[in-house]
Amino acid sequence: MKNPFKNESINEISENATDDELQTEDTDKDVTENSDSDDELDKLKNDYETLNSQYMRLAADFENFRKRTETEREALLRYGTENALSKMIEVIDNFERAEKSLENIEDISKYKECLELLHKQVLDILSKMGMVPINAQGQVFDPNFHDAVMQTPTSEYPEHTVIAELQKGYKLGEKVLRPSLVNVATTE
Questions:
Q1: Where are the domains of the chain?
Q2: Among 105, 126, 139, 181, fewest CB within 10 Å belongs to which?
Q3: Count of CB atoms within 10 A of residue 168's CB?
């Protein structure tokens, strides 16, 4: 029998065997790495799908919240207007009663008394709704609440003091509905 390793040395044979073993290990590593990368890719896909699903739900929830808030806001405005108008109907009724009762009255003091009562009723209703007059007379001029339409040189008042209110201003809470039109003192 012929020796197959006759021309090869033992070292060469062990090197060849080691190379074969290394190739087998590399193939096993490639398979393991491929399966690891596939697992990692599947995990990333699942994470992406989960996050995308959460984002879509959050976007839908936000859109529903926005629509609900808009609907509630419109209802509040409608209800607020309805409430104000229902209170003002009472004032209209009183104006009509005053007109009828004053048809045959020639006494101007009765007429004046009716107008004062109606004015008071309107102011009471508006103050219950939160509207209050802006106090301007004798105050330091504040451009947030006052609109200076005149300036009068005077030594009677300190500079920048409101000396006359030409038109009353009103605010609702801290929001100015209409600034007071005022005359402001300046130095002579």
A1: 10-129, 132-188
A2: 105
A3: 13
